[in-house]
Amino acid sequence: MSTDSTLAPATPSADAFLQFLVNLVNNGSQLESIGVTLQMGGMLVSGSIVSGADYFDRFAANFSDSLGALDANTRSGVRASLAELGDVFRVPQPVDPLPNYIHLSDALFFAADGTPIAGQPTLWRGRTSSVDGFILGRLQSDAAN
Fold first, then answer.
1. Greater confidence, 46 or 9?
2. Which domain, by its residues, includes 59?
3. Which residues contact 19 (CB under 8 A, 6 or more apart)?
């Protein structure tokens, strides 16, 4: 009996439906964000899918604002450089290839049983290929209520 691994069914690298949803938001259609909870390796990440452009704009602002020890011109340059990383998302995104990364705003983290992991809502970026499953809608920690 052969143990040829080419006969085994291929495991998809990422959920094409999740990638489709990410692409909808990245294209700036009527959807600015989609609430989602991702299951990733025994952990839950819950937040709103935002476009890559929005993610990098927010990241650039947050990061440059944290550089209080630097002068305003340097902080402004850092902000502009980081925001440029989102420029690829400012043009219509192709249907193929599907996006490899998902960007969340207001992300919260939970253990698999739903117990919140301490932390404030934050920006989060992850590989779509690392998502084991997802549901539409966001989990809320008891502290957020």
1. 46
2. 14-90+102-144
3. 98, 99, 128
Which DSSP category does 31 fall into? -
CATH code: domain of residue 75:
2.30.30.100
Please answer whether residues 130 and 35 qualify as being in contact, where contact means their C-beta atoms are separated by less than 8 angstroms.
no
3-state secondary structure of 68: coil
Q: Which pTM value belongs to this model?
A: 0.84
What's the rounded Cα separation, in Å, for the pair 76 and 112? 40
- Reported as type and span, the H/E element at residue 10 is none
Q: How far apart are CA 60 and CA 43, in angstroms?
A: 27
CA atoms in the 13 A half-sphere facing the CB of 106: 15
